[in-house]
Write a structure and sequence with these properties.
This protein is mainly α. It has helices spanning about 1-15, 45-75, 80-95, 120-130, 135-140, 140-150, 160-175, 200-210, 220-230, 240-265, 290-295, 305-315, 325-345, 375-385.
């Protein structure tokens, strides 16, 4: 009897961890079941088969008991972590100043939160409680504890992704005067923005709303909320996109001019965000100037290829520092360009065969000897390598 109890305990542990015992197979040819013809008259084989069948029966019984037990347990509401939920709700209010807890909120691993709460999926746990009638019917004292903290125990009290986006959009409009959110815009971690939306990728979410109807599909009331806020649904139109780019460039340019005025240079650190003080224009507060400067130095399309914007930046002292990647690209292009000049001088055209390799010939620059010129030219024609985004090379 003791050994059978041990078997039951081990079986439950295996099932909990996701393992299946070796005999958990209903095919007599697997997991050691003898694979011999039924007409073989072998006592040993028959004994092994009988033992294997008995294990199958035990497994079937235990599986049924285990399934019934877990199904029964799943009907009960788990409240073992209720005290932790109360602690998390209290700290959330203290940290963020309200009880607007996002459904997907997970307690971060930060010193503000006790270690035993790190990783707690507070939003999902509260969603489970607030949508289960048993919680309200069988645990009224716990409902009152939540109310005593200040949170209304209702699913409407939680903020879904749309609520988070809406909150960020309202702040964006108050700062920039419109809702033409750049696709790469991330809500900065500054005082102008509610802490709960810090680092939210607002640009990507707004783009998803416009392109696929995310958050608003089949929900006309949400669409109406965005309409009332002034949301522009057709920002994908080239004219509107151009306007948005122009406004973004102007913000960058004005930020640089002010930065130079205050600090005497435009060596903007990558992490620099325009502070909220009187020395900066209010409409630039919280603007991630450093991030945009990195993008521009990496030949961002906002500036590159636009002579007028390029000259404006140069006029205030902006310099494009060549990265290692850009230097390598320039070197490869220079090799190809000088080789093509010699090729045309020798052959009279630029119809370079794909198999052509620069020979070790004094007529060719020595540093190009062995260059697979035909392959490079073919790649340039087919993919735009070395010339794409470089109009001056073309």
């Amino acid at each position: 009897m003791v050994s059978f109890s041990v078997f039951i305990i081990c079986f439950s542990l295996f099932r909990t961890l996701g393992f299946t015992p070796k005999f958990a197979c209903y095919n007599q040819n697997c997991m050691g079941a003898p694979n011999v013809p039924n007409n073989v008259n072998n006592v040993y084989i028959k004994q092994k088969r009988a033992k294997f069948r008995s294990k199958r029966v035990i497994f079937a019984i235990m599986e049924r008991l285990y399934t019934d037990r877990t199904s029964e347990d799943s009907k009960h509401l788990v409240l073992d972590d209720f005290d932790q939920l109360l602690d998390a709700i209290f700290i959330f209010n203290k940290e963020y100043g309200d009880f607007e807890i996002p459904v997907k909120f997970e307690v971060p691993d930060s010193p503000v939160w006790p270690a035993h709460l790190h990783g707690l999926r507070l939003g999902k746990r509260l969603e489970k409680l607030f949508t289960t009638s048993e919680f309200f019917d069988d645990h009224p004292e716990k409902v009152k504890e939540i109310e005593k903290i200040g949170l209304k125990p209702s699913i409407d009290s939680l903020v879904d992704d749309f609520g988070l986006v809406l909150r960020a959009l309202k702040v964006y409009k108050s700062i920039y005067g419109n809702l033409r959110v750049p696709a790469k815009f991330v809500c900065p971690a500054t005082k102008s923005w509610p802490q709960i939306v810090h680092n939210v990728q607002l640009g990507a979410r707004v783009a998803a709303i416009r392109s696929s109807g995310r958050f608003v599909r089949d929900k006309p009331e949400r669409k109406q909320i965005l309409d009332d806020l002034g949301f522009e649904w057709r920002l994908r139109d080239p004219i509107l996109r151009l306007t948005s780019d122009e406004e973004l460039f102007e913000q960058i340019y004005q930020g640089l001019v002010k930065y130079k005025e205050l600090r005497g240079n435009i060596n903007v650190p990558e992490v620099f965000i325009i502070p909220e003080d009187d020395s900066w224009p209010p409409d630039l507060h919280g603007f991630p100037l450093g991030t945009h400067m990195v993008a521009i130095r990496q030949r961002d399309k906002l500036v590159y290829g636009n002579d007028e914007r390029t000259e404006r930046l140069r006029a205030i002292g902006f310099e494009w520092k060549e990265s290692a990647k850009a230097a390598a690209s320039n070197k490869r292009f220079d090799e190809v360009y000088r080789s093509l000049l010699v090729y045309k001088e020798i052959y009279g055209d630029l119809y370079v065969p794909q198999s052509f390799i620069v020979p070790n010939d004094p007529r060719w620059p020595e540093d190009t000897w062995g260059l697979r010129l035909g392959g490079r030219v073919n790649t340039m024609r087919s993919t735009g390598a070395l010339v794409m985004n470089y109009p001056e090379r073309r």
